Structures are given as C-alpha cells and as structure tokens.
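Rotation project, supervised by the postdoc (A.L.). Task for the rotation student: set up a whole-complex structure prediction and record inputs and outputs verbatim in this book. Inputs entered:
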Amino acid sequence: MTERIKSLLDRTFDKEQAKFRRDVDWKPLLGRFVAEKTPDEVRARIGLEEMLKSERPEFMDGERLAFLRTVRQIPDLHTDAEMDARRATGTAFGEKGVVFNMTADFAPTIRDGLGERLGEIDARLAKCRADGDAEGVEFLENARLSVEAVLDLVDRYRAEAEKRGLAEIAATLAQVPRNGARTFHEALQSLRILHYAMWCEGEYHCGLGRIDQYLFPYYDADIKAGRLTDETALEELEEFFIACNRDSDLYIGVQQGDNGQSVMLGGVTRDGKTAFNDLSRLCLKACGELKLVDPKINLRVDKTTPLEIYELGTELTAKGLGFPQYANDDVVIPALRRWGYELEDARDYSVAACWEFLVPGCGMDINNIDAVSFVGALDAALRNVAAASSPSFEDVKAEFKAEVQRRADALVEKYRHVEILPGPFVSVISTDCIKKARDISKGAKYNNFGIHGTGIAVAVDSLASVRELVFEKKLVTLSELVSLLDTDFAGRPDVLAAAKAAPKMGNADARADDLAKWLIDFWGHAFDGKRNDRGGVFRPGTGSAMYYIWHTRDVPASADGRLKGEPLSANWAPALDVPVKGPVSVVRSFTEPDLGSVCNGGPLTIEIHDSAFSMPDGVEKVAHLVKFFIDRGGHQMQINTINRETLLDAQKHPERHRHLIVRVWGWSGYFIELDKPYQDQIIKRVELAAS
Amino acid sequence: MTGRVFEIREFTLHDGPGVRTTVFMKGCPLRCAWCHNPEGQSFETETMTRANGERVVCGQDWSAAALAEELLRNADIMAQSGGGVTFSGGEPLAQAGFLLEVIPLLKKGGVQLAVETSGHVPLADYRAVVSQMDFVYQDVKLLNADAFRRWTGGDLALVLANIAYLRTSGVPFAFRVPCVPGVNDSAEDRAAFDAFAAGAKIEYLPFNAAAGAKYPMLGRKPPHYLASDA
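Outputs recorded:
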C-alpha cells in the first residue's frame, strides 16, 4: 500500500470526512410536496435536485477520486401519514417503498457518458410526444432533469477543483461522467459519481455488481498501453474501495454496516467463458490490504474452479473480513433459469445487499420482501396436531407442511400488488428504461419477489426431537410437549436433556438430515405457479436477514431444547449451541438437500476460530472445505473467522477493537457498531474449528 | 478387540497435511507434569463434570470396524485435500494392537495416516505401527534421563531406542517439543534439541498456560503452572 493510500485509509476510518458535513432540514420541502400534492415522479426528481444543489464540493487531502457527502440527510419525499394512507388502501411496499437492494447497469453509462443518455432521452421524448404517451413524457422529462442535476454538481466540483489547483481531478471531471471513460481512472471516477447519485436519490442497498467484468476493458487497455502497472492499478482500486467507506455511515440499514455495497467477482461471462481475470485478483488483493467492511466481496465459483482461487479468497477470510461470500454457478445459474431468467442474464448474476441473487441492471426484483418463520410454523402445527386424538409423526409433518404453505400463500396475497416509488436517475442507468420510456419502479425485465426462510435448522432439529421423544422413545405425549414449550420445560429437566440430545442438523446424521431434505423439497416448491401482478415469480430462499433476531420474539421454546428468547441461527446454519462434530460434517449435512430450488440465497454460515490460520497451511485447509461445499452442490457459503474471547473483550472495551470485523447475516460490519442482541448472537455461534 | 477413545475431532489443523480427523486414544504410560489433556492419561473411562454441572462420560469403546467406518465418512474430503487420520492421545501406541486392526481398514479407504506419540512404548509396538504411517510426530520432551523421569515418570532410554528406529525407518517424521517454562525452554535446551534433531524437522510448540481447565472437571488439582480458570 502506498503512503498516500495509507493516509487516506487512516483518515477515512477516523471519519475525517465528517468535518465537511452539515444538517439540512428537509421538512419545508416535504410540506410543499404534501400541500401541492406533488406526484411521486416529480417528488423524486425534485428531491434529487435539491439534495445535489445542497451539496458542496469538498475534497480530502491527497485524493484523486472526488465526491463525498456533505449533507447528512436525504430528503423525505412522503410523510408517514401519506404512506400509511396508501397502505391502508391495500397497496404493499417493500421496506421504505423506494427502489432498493438492487444493482444498476453502470457499464453502458461509464462507457458512453451521461451525455449520450441525454441524447437518447431527447430522441425518445420526441417520439413520446408524437405518440401522445403522457406517462412516457413525464418520466423522460424528470429523467432529463435528474441527469442535469447530477451534471450540475459535477461541474461545480470541477470548477472548485480548478480553483483549488487540483488539476487532475478537474481534468477527470471535465471528461466523466458527461462523456465516456477513456481510462481505468476515469471509469472509477464515473462509477463513484453514478453510485453516489443513486444514494442521493434515496435508493439504498445499492450494489456495485461485477466490477471485475465491466471495469476490465479500461484496466486492460491501460495496462497494454503502459498507462498503468499492476501497482498503480492496485492504488486506483484501493482509493475507490476506500471511497466506498467514506459516506457509508450515512447510508440506511438495519444495522451499521448493512449498506449493500456488494461486489461480485469471478464466475462466467455472459457467453459462458471463465470470467475470473487479473482485475478479480487485484480486487481481492486490495481488500486484503485495506481490511475495510466495504465493498463486500462475493466470489463466484464452480466445480472447475482451481483451488488457488479458493485460496485467494480464503486469504481474506483469514484476515477476519467475513468475506468473500462464495456462490456456486453450478447451482445458481440453473436455478435462475428455472425461474425464467434468460441464459445470458443468469450467467451475469450478482447479489443484492446480502446474498439474494439478481441480475444487475435488468432486475427490479424485491429479493427480501418478507420471510416465513419455520419455527413459528412448526409451533403452530404442533399445537394443531396435539389437539387431535392419537396423532402420528406423519400427521405432524403433514400439518407443518400445510402451515408453511398457508403462510407462503398469505405472503403471495399480501404482495400480489406492490408499488415501488420512482427513481428517475437510477432508471437512466438501468437497462431499457429510456427505450421503454418508463421508470424502473414500474417494472423491469425481472420483477420477482424473494421470500426468506428463518430458523430452518431449529425447525428441523425440533422435528427430529419430536419424532424421537414423542413417537419413538414415548418420553412425553405431544400435548405434554406443547405445554412444556410454554414453560421452558419447567419441571421436566429430563425432557429438556433428551431434546438437546436428539439428532441435530450439522452432524451428518441422517435422522435430522432426512427431515431437512424433505423440508427444502417442499419449501423450494411452495410458490410454484404463483405470480405477482408484475408477472414475477416468488423465489424461496434459505436466508434469514435480520428476521433471525426478530422472529425469536414471536415464539416460545422449541422442541429441540431451545428456550424462549434464545436466538435462532442466521441463514443456513446449525442451531446455536448444538455440539457438532466439526465443519466437515456441517458441510455434509447442509449439502444433503437439493439447494437448487431455494436459490433466493442464504448461505451456509460457519464460524472458524482465528487460530486456524496460525498454521501456514490453514488457508489451504479452509479453501478445501469451501471447495468441498461447492463440489457437493452447496449454493452459497460465508465464513466468519472469530475468537470468542476477543468478542467478549470487545464488548467490555470497544475502544480497543475499532477494527474488529464480523460477518453478521449477509454482510460484514464492525462488531462494536452492532446492537447488543446481534453481538450476543455472534458470540453464541459455534466455533467449529477450535483446535 | 476394542479401542478406547476420548475424542474424535474433525478438521484438526495442527496434526498433519490436508483436511484431517484426529482420534484421541485414551490412556498414557507417562504423567507429564504439564499435560494439557489429563483426560487422556487414565486408561479407564471417567466422568467429567463441566462448570455448569453437566456430566459427560469420557472414554468410548470402539470396534475397529465401527471406528474405521466413522472416520471414513470423511474419506472424500481427505482424498480431495491429501489429508487423513491422525492418532493422538493419550498415547495412541499404548493401544497398538487395536491400531493394527484399524489401520488396514483405513488404508483400504484410501486415507493418509499419521500418529503423534511420546515413543514411550515397547519397541515392537512402535515398529509395527510406525512402519505403516505416512507421517509421524515424535515428541521430544527432555534429553536428560533423570529430568525425563522426574517430569514425566518415564524411561528416556525406551524413547531414544524408538527414535533410533524412527530415524532409519524411512517414514517421514518431525520432532515436536512442548515448550514448558523453566523445564525445557532455555537457550541451552533449544540448542540441545536442535542438535538432537540433527537436521530432521523439529517444531517447538508454544506453552498454553490456560490449558489447566480440564483438571477440575476430573476432580483433580491442576499443576501449579497451568491456570484452571480459562
């Protein structure tokens, strides 16, 4: 790392950039919108204009890539009362209602420049006017103004840079993003501005997609022309990655760090060729040197991926970054095909904020619209069956399956009609919106909704426990067991001990794994034939998002011996406190089901003790473990390198652990910035390789 | 014949190449004052009481066929990674007869084999097992017979005789020295160990003072230099 980068890194980590920030009170603007009943499209455009007008060009000493946030707040475009009124009429929204959790199609605009987009808008506008397409006219007019607002700030940045003698920045901004990028440096600056503008428009969880693919032509041309070496290219990339951490504390998320700045590396190209290249390698290297939480690296692999690439990824794991998260092309691409994605698009997949697979630029999927609580469904099912006379275990399974289906059906009803608030600027940098003269919020090529499944391992373990305790050992009746769940097994320590000793997922034990296979098979098809009113499908997954914390509030103790309030495991992972043989058995258990039907995403999440990497071949061994998971048909995997004692010490002395990074549910964050329930859940996760 | 095992640990990282499972055999002829696995000393099954009051039986008897079947469940990833099974303990060679039943079953399953031994076993047992290993970790604790007897209760001559065989066996090996403060960690000790290795691979294992926690679980007092409050 060069001195300049080291200095930028330290100052960014210490939030020097915060000194440029100020508060803006957006209430008057919102008041005006309400009073004038301003339409959504106009609000979105004016919001962006006002936000960018309020921004002041500022520069950190020594930077070559400009743009940072000086206004803390993004304007609210609707009051809560307005949104509540719309919800009351039966309209559903995903989270805050705006475009989010997606990745724009940055490549064409980096290549052509926003000027080219303006030309296309004007041509299309003329046609819409001629055709009398009022909606098209309105979209395109707002889109045009949003682009001009971005270019206006770019011009002010350029003028300020000139004034301050920052000639290189001024020259770069004279070229991009108005015109196409000619160099790797210009491409990075253009990307920085487009991404920055999305956040200013109010979009959030804005992914970066396959940067090793769309930036490669610039990198490659510069290397070939001798304008760049691998050292200078690394420096460029590192500056860009640092910039991703500059404003991130202003971004919206459930927890600090949950900001969706995902990057996908490797995999295959749209025509099916190996895509891992020198730039992919450089990205991994840059992350390894910087040790920052952003951007969050994902790595696509398949059966043919050489161990060396897994080892490059594991070098980051060893540094405790919580990424890369691996995705398996052999499973994900066919899964996307089954959901209707075209082959070339499926090959081009990336991830949303966490692990939900999407196709950059042409997806307006809402990948995390809701979740089914498997623990809640099983609890309800056990109560229903317990009321029957002499129930069998088959009755329990049938009722559980029916209950999950009822909950799935309810979600289909709830989200049949979803509205998304418009984003004129993000539409300009997404595929075909100008051509169609429609905002991306009205629908894109793919409009699928993702449904998470929470607490799968706890539900499976509980079923295994019910089978053993009630129907095999006959230790208790089903109705006795249900009563015990309400009292945390009060008075029956023998039943609690037997529940804890019953078969568990993660030990390669068929007595639990057979139930997991059965569950995944029906969950993967729970939405077959169902569509939302945008024509999209519902995609089930194995992710939990934050629901693994939220859903514990709604359920009593469970039959696996988990007491009320004890957290669920995140994602696709063994239940907490389950004694497992080790990570090989965990991988074996969690690759027994056919994961191709649950590819909304949701990784096997395992923890490895940091001492694993004290031996020189620790990286190779962990790389073999990941490869084993992929070769066995795993869909997605992430690894936390942690040390329980360090985490406990960090709770006591946060000031000593400012750089401590952990993987939370689908993203890496700074441990000390998490709320305590999330910290505690991580501490409870099993450390699988403590030797 | 059955073998007595006190732990089977998956994905061990310090016991040889590749992805490995380590089998900890119960019982040891030595009583090293610094022992980190006191539950591996007695050949008898014991009950350990955890701090939370939970009682666990330490020591399971396995038939060779059952143990081999259990270990070979991971034969695929062992083959993929050039890994295998490591026998540790306790003193694994103290159950040489049992190991000699398990070894051919594991070899048939295509996994690499290693052993970690004090070498304090009859030469015939040592030779029979070691000759079939892909790798041997041979402990070297002390090089003075009196000190060896004082700190471990054992006979150094027996260990040295086995090491003499090991050096000529053609089986790849490394010496491992558990570094114990005030016992064998001086600069002179280090020089003597290096000279003893005579160019063979030698690893110095750092002392872990927090390893005394298992003694109270067995109702025993930890050695004074091992903390029990880990």
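Student's summary: The longest helix of chain B spans residues 156-169.
Supervisor addendum: Residues 216 and 222 of chain B are 7 Å apart (CA to CA).
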